[in-house]
Amino acid sequence: MKKTLFSVLCLLTALGAQAQKTIQVTNDADEVVKIWDNGSAPHSNEEKLDEVLNDRNHFSHTSETRIYIYKADPAKATGQAVVVCPGGGYGAVCISHEGFEMAKYFRDLGITAVVLKYRLPNNGHKIVPLEDAQEALRYVRKNAKKLNVNPAKVGICGSSAGGHLAAYTSTFTPDAEKPAFAVLFYPVITGTTWFTHQGTFANLLGQQRTPKEQEEYSLENRVTETTPPTILILADDDRVVPTLSSVLYYKALKDHGVKASMHIYPSGGHGFAGNKAYKYDKEYKAAIADFLKGLNK
What we know:
CATH superfamily: Alpha/Beta hydrolase fold, catalytic domain
Strand content: 15-25%
Number of domains: 1
Structural class: alpha/beta
Strand order of the largest sheet: 1-4-7-5-8-9-10-11
Largest sheet: 8 strands, mixed
CATH class: Alpha Beta
CATH topology: Rossmann fold
Number of strands: 11
Shape: globular
Order of helices and strands: HEEEEEEHEHHEHEHHEHEH
């Protein structure tokens, strides 16, 4: 009787986990692929709530990882591909402008773009977004022939907390699997007070994070000579993530002999990636195109 009751309870628990709802967002991608969820990924973020998608296409409570693939026109394809990580302070995934719109820009350059809807760290599950980004890179490389890309030319792009994730992936991933390049928009880099967005670090590492832990995930401290070539795009009047955070990362890249470029525009604040109305939209897009073209020789 006790064994039967235990089995029933286990079944109910499993059914409860399966009943957790996920949400599909309207998109114009060529292909959408489910990578995994909390039940099949190496680690779970232990999210218990159903996913939410607000009227601005910001995901929260994510428990499932998906990629949205925007394939470059074969006539224009450079062989490069990029995994795009939207921002949201590790408390949301702002998938429209920082995701889909940026993907279209890369696609138009001849670069196949893969927008990553990643699982959020849910107050301290720091490995979860990293393993999602790493698996997205692996997916593109494994399917390089189908996607018409060179597996050695798969990079990563991220904005704000997504910029932290892109730099996190660039520095914490084993050398053989690191992205080929990184494009970082106003990234959260350091946990140093005054230079950071504390909410991002609180979500990633948890409210009880220690100074040692915060230093470990301050990515300027993780740069080596094998960190991929990186371009940073910033606005001088950003009041959310100070530009000095990126300056620390740029300095670390140059100190280790890594090819890097940094562009600080006079205005734009925070969150302008993918916004065609941004005053310096053409300028930053031209800078990225030039940087990536230089890597593709």
